[in-house]
């Protein structure tokens, strides 16, 4: 089938692989053929409509578009005949007649102009046609249709690459032009602003507003330089190309990384200007002696200089270290705690946990993974001996059946979502299970909207079907899995008929989905916070692991278990030991041999007992235990559950050091604030959800007196007499790696050279292993273990006082506590105010009106915000993101913990909703 074809190209004998176009062979051979409607990037189909790439084929009457034409054996192709070059010139001249002149063109540097000059066309003899006016209704993207050549690349970008289906080509003939959702303007369409169309457009008809002078409607900004880096937002780990002008980021484009193949989402592409926000911390601050540690001080409208005074670095660092040391002197390691960051690099995470452990002999060091996938990691470690994904998310493209449960990738892992949609388009069966409807369900074979908090019932019913119908893989179980008999016994009572009323999905659908997953050749499971943020979350994950193990859907291409990791470096920060129970690489702090290795390396006696977790630390502070805390790059005053309690803990602390880039809600409670580096200002490695280790590079200078996080950690360590002497990030990486077998064969040098390496790698020169556990599991005996589960209800059920289920989560445009994205102009313009979403039917039943102010209340607190109608939210539920400091969702959430993962129940509590006080009085 895949025989090479030999043909002649400009007089040279060349070969083409199966499916290669003439254009692609020419490129490989170093022959340049102009192109406009053809984009030379993964995921783009050639269309051959613009005729800019025409070539001459001997014996053929007409010229042919080389981007779509495949060569045949013995064909004689010439790219430079007079006929071909003249025709191409003519194409450019005709297109140019339709463009604004270069002086008033939206992008005089666009591919169109560059090619025009290369083919020797600078003006047109033809009269221009009439063109529509510019549409600047969207906050990020200008639509300059006067420059459109109707090549439909934007439509392919939108529909085929990102699979968003917003752009279509409307009108006919010379009037053909992109339209948005069949209705202009763009700003009112359902566009999610991934910007793929902007990156595809060859003329600047779709163009970044950040590069334009809006008044003059032309390009005004040309970058000084471009830096290769990685996106600072989510665990997908998109590689980026960051363009900088006069020390400021002006544009971000995708690069061809293993996770993103040039794709980005709205945050990665347009959410960059938080880095340059005037609200960045630029000077060290120390709390004024007379400033009270009021719980809600920032809400009282204080000016920060009423509360803090500016200090020199020496003074601030001395004070920060002295406060920690005082508590250490008083209480030993038990008096100290630290929250490190999954937004920072691996090196920063490693140094942070080292500082707390080496400096204070304390294991009270944790980070946001505790609020995130801690339960997934607990269940995976217990079941298969490893907490990371067994396959990258692009494995979905090889799968016959893809399950997504308790995750909302279109909002939270948008580039992953593009691959899931592509998998569905090419025939994989997609199953989405979630108590809320979501856009991805449009692409799914099954969208199961079940009752929140009933995952175990639903999944055990599926396990019941798989076992009673004999759809499990006996051989696989015999070879690799323990605990099958106990599972069989346990799930025998969980018949689909018995579980249907519990989970709200009918028995037949449960059977269908169970059969589909088990009988498909290759099935893969993705999950998110809907699984992991419950008091029974470890059980939820145990069910998913059991499904994969009894069907043998693990360890082969197109199969596996993939908890979609959240923060850009939560995988890496966890790997680096930012966890109270383990040193780097998940090695127990309670194991004397392991501890001895670190005691030797760090020259101090280390804490032999596991430390406290995020929520436990807050409780311990209030119980007069811990009295000092160091927070680097987290915002617990917004992200921890039950804020009245969490903020009380922060104000109770004797000493709080906050190292951040903004004066966050947490920083308001601090004694010392250390202004730190944003992602774009520093060097470091980040590990994404696929276990791909990638380098982020400095693009812009630090603002004011702000300093790199790793330098601040070293300054503090040396004030604690730890004698750290790191010369830079590569040295820290290598020290960290010396304690991490998982990073064997992945030297700094290799990362510099290869850009991305997946861990684990078997040798210095072979690619890392993407798919794990084909032969055995990293448990003591190499076998996996099933842990059967029972039904555990959510900790707080609705009742007559609090009749709604409140669930919290995210929105596409905002990042967690909003610290970064509320300060990103485009993102904040898209979602500017706090909202609670409710089903229109419930809104009508309650007699509310859209957009009115409502108060949502739980047993822990009340907040007032704007009511939004949202058909995705099931009747009886309320949904709220936790990014708005004006109405912090975590004033309401329940801090009850899962006993294994110690994760709070962010996804379920009982609530009521009423018109806001002021409105009620009207
Ligand atoms: N835009 C944006 N992207 C982000 C982030 C962000 O803040 N903003 N944060 C990042 C981080 S750290 C993380 S962890 C990820 C999180 O990404 P996701 O895991 O997708 O997070 P959520 O939106 O919190 O919740 C996922 C889904 O759980 C569903 N759910 C609620 N209750 C239940 C239940 O009882 N059972 C099941 N099965 N599902 C339920 C919700 O309806 C929701 O669709 O996103 C990352 N990406
Ligand atoms: N109600 C509710 N609450 C939740 C969740 C939920 O679904 N519902 N989800 C939970 C989950 S999954 C997570 S992961 C947590 C996230 O909780 P957090 O990690 O607390 O949230 P972020 O807003 O990401 O906080 C990151 C902080 O780091 C700062 N920062 C960014 N870059 C840098 C840097 O390079 N250096 C330094 N020093 N600082 C930096 C930012 O300004 C910000 O203050 O929230 C949890 N809380
Ligand atoms: Mo997370």
TrEMBL record:
Signal peptide stretch: none
Domain 4Fe-4S Mo/W bis-MGD-type: residue ranges: 224-279
InterPro entries: 2Fe-2S_ferredoxin-like_sf, 2Fe-2S_ferredoxin-type, 4Fe4S_Fe-S-bd, 4Fe4S_Fe_S_CS, Asp_de-COase-like_dom_sf, CT_Formate-Dh_H, Formate_Dh-H_N, Formate_DH_asu
Chain ranges of the 2Fe-2S ferredoxin-type domain: 3-83
Entry keyword annotation includes Oxidoreductase: yes
UniProt cross-references to CDD domains, sorted A to Z: fer2, MopB_CT_Formate-Dh_H, MopB_Formate-Dh-H
PANTHER family: FORMATE DEHYDROGENASE H (PTHR43105:SF14), RESPIRATORY NITRATE REDUCTASE (PTHR43105)
Gene giving rise to this polypeptide: fdhF
EC number from the UniProt entry: 1.17.1.9
Pfam families xref list: Fer2_4 (PF13510), Fer4_7 (PF12838), Molybdop_Fe4S4 (PF04879), Molybdopterin (PF00384), Molydop_binding (PF01568)
Protein name, as recorded: Formate dehydrogenase subunit alpha
């Amino acid at each position: 089938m895949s025989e090479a074809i030999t043909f002649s190209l400009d007089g040279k004998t060349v070969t083409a692989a199966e499916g290669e176009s003439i254009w692609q062979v020419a490129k490989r051979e170093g022959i340049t053929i102009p192109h406009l409607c053809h984009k030379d990037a993964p995921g783009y189909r050639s269309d051959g409509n613009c005729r800019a790439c025409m070539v001459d084929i001997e014996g053929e009457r007409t010229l042919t578009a080389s981007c779509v034409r495949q060569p045949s054996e013995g064909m004689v192709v010439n790219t430079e005949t007079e006929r071909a070059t003249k025709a191409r010139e003519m194409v450019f001249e005709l297109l140019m007649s339709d463009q604004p002149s270069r002086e008033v063109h939206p992008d005089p540097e666009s591919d169109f102009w560059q090619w025009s000059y290369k083919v020797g066309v600078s003006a047109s003899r033809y009269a221009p046609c009439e063109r529509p006016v510019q549409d600047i209704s969207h906050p990020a993207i200008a639509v300059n249709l006067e420059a459109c050549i109707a090549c439909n690349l934007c439509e392919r970008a939108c529909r085929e690459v990102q699979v968003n289906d917003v752009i279509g080509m409307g009108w006919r003939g010379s009037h053909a032009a992109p339209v948005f959702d069949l209705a202009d303007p763009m700003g009112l369409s359902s566009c999610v602003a991934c910007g793929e169309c902007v990156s595809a457009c060859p003329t600047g008809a779709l163009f970044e507003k950040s590069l334009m002078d809006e008044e003059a409607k032309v390009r005004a900004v040309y970058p000084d330089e471009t830096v290769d880096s990685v996106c600072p937002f989510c665990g997908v780990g998109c590689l980026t190309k960051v363009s900088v002008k006069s020390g400021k980021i002006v544009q971000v484009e995708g690069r061809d990384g293993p996770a993103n193949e040039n794709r980005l989402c709205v945050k990665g592409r347009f959410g960059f200007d938080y880095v340059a926000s005037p609200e960045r911390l630029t000077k060290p601050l120390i709390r004024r002696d007379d400033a009270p540690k009021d719980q809600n001080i920032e809400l009282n409208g204080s000016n920060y200089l009423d509360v803090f005074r500016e200090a020199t670095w020496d003074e601030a660092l001395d004070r920060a270290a002295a406060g920690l040391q005082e508590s250490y002197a008083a209480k030993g390691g038990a008096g100290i705690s630290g929250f490190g960051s999954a937004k920072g690099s691996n090196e920063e995470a490693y140094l942070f946990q080292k500082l707390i452990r080496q400096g204070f002999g304390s294991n009270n060091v944790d980070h946001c993974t505790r609020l995130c996938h801690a339960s997934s990691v607990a269940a995976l470690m217990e079941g298969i001996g490893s907490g990371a994904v067994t396959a990258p998310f692009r494995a979905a493209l090889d799968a016959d059946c893809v399950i997504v449960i308790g995750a909302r990738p279109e909002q939270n892992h948008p580039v992953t979502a593009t691959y899931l949609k592509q998998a569905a388009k090419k025939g994989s069966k997609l199953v989405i299970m979630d108590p809320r409807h979501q856009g991805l369900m449009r692409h799914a074979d099954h969208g199961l909207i079940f009752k929140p908090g009933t995952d175990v019932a639903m999944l055990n019913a599926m396990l019941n079907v798989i076992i009673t119908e004999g759809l499990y893989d006996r051989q696989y179980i015999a070879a690799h899995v323990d605990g099958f008999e106990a599972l069989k016994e346990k799930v025998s009572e969980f018949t689909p008929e018995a579980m249907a009323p519990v989970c709200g999905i009918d028995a037949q659908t449960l059977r269908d989905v169970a059969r589909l997953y088990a009988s498909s050749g290759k099935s893969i499971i993705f999950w998110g916070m809907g699984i992991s943020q419950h008091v029974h979350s470890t059980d939820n994950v145990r069910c998913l692991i059991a499904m994969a193990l009894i069907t043998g859907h693990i360890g082969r291409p197109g199969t596996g278990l993939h908890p979609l990791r959240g923060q850009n470096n939560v995988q890496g920060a966890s790997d680096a030991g930012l966890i109270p129970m383990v040193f780097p690489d998940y090695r127990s702090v309670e194991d004397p041999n392991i501890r001895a290795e670190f005691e030797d390396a760090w020259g101090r006696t280390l804490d032999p007992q596991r430390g406290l977790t995020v929520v436990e630390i807050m409780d311990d502070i209030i119980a007069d235990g811990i009295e000092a805390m160091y927070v680097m790059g987290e915002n617990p005053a917004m992200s921890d559950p039950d804020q009245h309690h969490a903020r009380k803990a922060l104000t109770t602390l004797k000493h709080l050091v906050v190292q951040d880039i903004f004066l966050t809600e947490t920083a308001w409670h601090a004694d010392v604030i250390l202004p730190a580096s944003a992602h774009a200002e520093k060097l470091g490695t980040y590990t994404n959800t696929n276990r791909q280790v990638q380098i982020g590079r400095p693009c812009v200078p630090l603002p004011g007196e702000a300093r790199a996080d790793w330098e601040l950690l070293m300054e503090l360590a040396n004030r604690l007499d730890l004698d750290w002497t790191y010369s830079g990030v590569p040295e820290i990486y290598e020290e960290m790696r010396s304690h991490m077998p998982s990073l064997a064969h992945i030297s700094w040098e290799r990362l510099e050279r290869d850009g991305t390496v997946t861990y684990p790698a078997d040798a210095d020169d072979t690619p890392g292993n993407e798919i794990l556990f084909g032969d055995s599991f990293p448990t003591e005996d190499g076998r996996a273990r099933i842990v059967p589960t029972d039904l555990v209800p959510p900790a707080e059920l609705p009742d007559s006082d609090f009749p709604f289920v409140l669930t919290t989560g995210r929105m596409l445009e905002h990042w967690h506590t909003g610290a970064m994205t509320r300060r990103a102009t485009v993102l904040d313009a898209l979602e500017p105010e706090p909202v609670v979403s409710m089903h229109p039917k419930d809104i009508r039943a309650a007699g509310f009106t859209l957009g009115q102010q409502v108060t949502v209340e739980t047993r822990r607190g009340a907040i007032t915000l704007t009511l939004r109608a949202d058909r995705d939210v099931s009747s009886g539920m309320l949904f709220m993101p936790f990014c708005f400091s004006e109405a912090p969702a975590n004033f309401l959430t329940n801090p009850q913990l899962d006993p294994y993962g110690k994760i709070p129940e962010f996804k379920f509590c009982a609530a009521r909703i009423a018109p806001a006080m002021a409105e009620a009085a009207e």
